[in-house]
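Shipment paperwork, digital attachment
Item: protein structure file
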Amino acid sequence: MQAEGTFGIIKYDRRYKRIVRRGLDSVRVEIFLVSIGHNLYKIYNKQMRLREVA
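Attachment content:
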């Protein structure tokens, strides 16, 4: 598994540089939402590539 690639995309390509929430629970929610956004972006791109082939 290559974790550095995912964090690089989130930090530099998506311009997410800093956690703005305070408190452990809030930070977890923020990271969770950023991760969901990243995964939805990947799913969307995969579906678009599959539609182009069909």
